[in-house]
Specification:
It is built from 18 helices and eight strands. The protein has 476 residues and is mostly helical.
């Protein structure tokens, strides 16, 4: 989605917001010649015409056929001078207006600019998404768990839909983002449902993972509950269960997965920001970065944090940048050498994302959606594996990574603001292009795949909302 489609201001101002205004840096202010000709085009045009009339009348020779001839010649010349001065000023004003409209630092033409006072397209997208989620919320009376209110993994499932922890957690995140504008849905009901969907031994799992709690799903749910206002005391026991099971001995596959570690790290930073495991998870993530010789040996991430790492992945690099940036804000980066290594890895990850060699950046390979599998041995039968299919909305993750507070700082320090702007615009355009009435669809042709997953709609709405907040520039 271009700047024109967004109907927004520039991505980079001429000066930092903290700098004093520069009186000579206003692109809409006319230059001294323009001000002179503008004055000439007003009162000055009449004065110029009258001056020419007076001058010619006084210097024309008396040999002309009477004073009437001198009046005619002087009058016509004065009138011609008036018209020429007025037209010159009008032309200059028109050129100045056209230049202001084309100036990248001026407000761009978009729906809002074409219809002053009218809303842009984003409020309509948010309203449509909210309406769809309210219309498709599933309310089930479970004989054991009680009343369940939420969503399955995907909107519009053919079979009778039953709320799941993953679908309901993402739905709760969406409602919190949108602000729940009316009483059509209660976030309290969603919170109660997530607690009722808790497994008998504690924790939560995805629908395909059976009855054993998994740390990435548990951390996702805990993060949603914490964001909705659940007290730290109530979350504490589940945080302990989650971290206690997330060890190399009990979940080696999870600790070697970039997706799993970043998901757990983000969730626990919300639910338990003083949890003792967080520095260790940050170190695990930072140590899993790899060097990419195709991009100046910058460090990035693959789908694994241990050999074999897999190929450098824009998706997993963006996930790592988001998680490490959030950890930096919660835990700090100046505590010790390990924190400093995490900062260096995060900064390299941002530079790696900015070094994409392909174009255009709204359809480049860095934005391709991915599908991966997380395979774990089953505890009841280690010879068999549990397989979790994970699909990734890559463009939304790049938006979140490039909008992280540290990303623009790195771009500015390295002189890469133009690259940052172009890649952010491309990623936002790709996110926008994937939605229909505020709901995103997984764009694969396989009819067996879930078509409108809740997580994808949450990530799309979240990315657009973050971008709109970042770009907001009040008038005056």
């Amino acid at each position: 989605m271009s700047q024109q489609q967004l109907g927004r201001g520039p991505l980079r101002p001429r000066q930092h917001r903290t700098d004093p205004p520069l009186p000579d840096d206003d692109p809409s202010a006319p230059s001294p010649p323009a001000r002179f000709v503008g004055w000439l085009g007003g009162l000055g045009a009449a004065a110029a015409g009258y001056g020419v009339f007076q001058f010619l009348f006084s210097v024309l020779p008396a040999s002309l056929d009477g004073s009437a001839a001198r009046y005619v010649i002087s009058g016509v010349s004065g009138l011609a001078t008036f018209v020429a001065a007025w037209l010159a000023a009008a032309l200059l004003r028109a050129r100045a207006a056209a230049a202001a409209g084309a100036d990248p630092t001026a407000a761009t033409v978009g729906p809002a600019a074409m219809a002053p006072g009218a809303p842009g397209p984003l409020p309509k997208v948010f309203a449509s998404a909210y309406g769809t989620l309210v219309d498709q919320v599933s309310v089930v009376a479970d004989p054991e768990r009680g009343r369940l209110t939420g969503w399955p993994h995907s909107l519009g499932e053919d079979t009778p839909s039953r709320p799941t922890p993953v679908g309901t957690a993402y739905g709760l995140h969406i409602m919190l983002d949108l602000g729940v504008p009316d009483g059509g849905l209660s976030t309290g009901d969603l919170v109660d449902t997530l607690w009722r969907l808790q497994l008998p031994d504690g924790g939560w799992s995805a629908r395909s993972q059976g009855s054993e709690a998994r740390p990435e799903v548990t951390a996702l749910v805990l993060g949603a509950l914490a964001r909705a206002g659940t007290s730290a005391d109530r979350l504490a026991a589940e945080v302990d269960r989650c971290t206690g099971a997330f060890t190399r001995q009990l979940d080696r596959a999870g600790l070697e997965s970039t997706h799993v570690v970043t998901t757990v790290l983000r969730g626990l930073l919300r639910a338990a920001p003083r949890c003792e495991i967080l520095p260790a998870l940050r170190e695990t993530l930072a140590d899993g970065a790899i060097s990419d010789p195709r991009r100046d040996h910058l460090r990035c991430w693959g789908y694994r944090l241990q050999p074999p790492y897999g190929r450098p992945s824009p998706l997993h690099t963006a996930q790592a940048v988001v998680a490490l940036d959030r950890a930096a804000r919660v835990l700090g980066e100046d505590t010790d050498a390990r924190a400093a290594r995490a900062r260096t890895a995060r900064e390299d990850g941002v530079r790696w994302l900015l070094s994409c060699p392909d174009a255009p950046h709204d359809t480049c390979p860095d934005l391709e959606n991915l599908h991966e599998e997380v395979r774990r041995p089953r505890t009841d039968d280690p010879s068999r594996h549990e397989v979790l299919n994970v699909r990734h909305f890559t463009a939304s993750w790049l938006v979140r990574a490039l909008l992280s507070p540290g990303a623009l700082e790195i771009a500015r320090a390295d002189g890469l603001e133009d690259e940052w702007r172009v890649r952010l615009d491309g990623a936002v355009a790709a996110v926008w292009a994937g939605q229909t009435d505020g709901v995103w669809s997984w764009g694969r042709g396989d009819s067996t795949e879930l078509r409108r997953p809740m997580w994808m709609t949450y990530q799309g709405l979240s990315a657009l909302r973050a971008h709109a907040v970042w770009m907001y520039q009040p008038d005056g």
